[in-house]
Design a protein that fits this description.
Alpha-Beta Plaits, 8 helices, four-stranded antiparallel β-sheet, about 25% strand, six-stranded antiparallel β-sheet, alpha+beta, 3 domains
Amino acid sequence: MYSDWYLEREFSDAELRLLIDSLLFSKHIPYSQCKKLIEKLEGLSNRYFKSKVGHIRNMPESMPENKQLFYTIEIIDEAISKNRQVVFNYSEYNTDKKLRPRKNSKGEIREYLVNPYQMAATNGRYYLICNFDSYDGVSNYRLDRITNIKMLESKAKDKKLVKGMEHGLDLPRHMAENIYMFGGESVRVTFHAKRWVVGDILDWFGKDVTFTDSDADEVIARVRVSEQAMFYWAMQYGEYVEVLEPSGLRTRVKIAAEEMAKKYTTDMI
């Protein structure tokens, strides 16, 4: 008989809660798989832990599921390790809440041949950072929209041949410049912002944003970011920011705001 011993666990309850909350906030893991993962994490603690987090079992099954997600992750991970190309279908949800593969102009299911380089999570979703083989730029694809993936024998394109990756993938910079994970080149953007949204600006763009005092209520911010992403961000925060440069982006936001205003000129009956 042994006495005066105790089990030292790998994770504290607080650490397990953090991992479980990360799963709950995830928008890309299917409900059924998320629930199984949480149950496994609960099993890493003592029997009293489950009673403390009983509310997690009330997760709503609110999002459609892609049952192939974990398989997709495994194939991409192996392809990146072996420096291989992958091919897949890229799907979109229809009003019937089911994934439908994108089709080409001939009505045929489109295949995407890409060179995979990195998987990254942002805004509660998981993305593949890669190069669409027919082009020379960087592309981002949501993993939960990828179906029917296959790893090929052909070698992936060297990063040095991909525009924006000539010196390798700077992941923190890439994520900061692609806040919505759109493709396209990054540009230098200057905008006015209300001083109280500085925290939000740092949340979205990271530490590389620079500020210049304007007055007691506003600041001028400068950041390098995908122009397409900045357009959507400016529309999201339109009440509190004003794009100054580049002029083409400012004009685009102005036109979109005018079109939006037209929709609200007549009251609904």
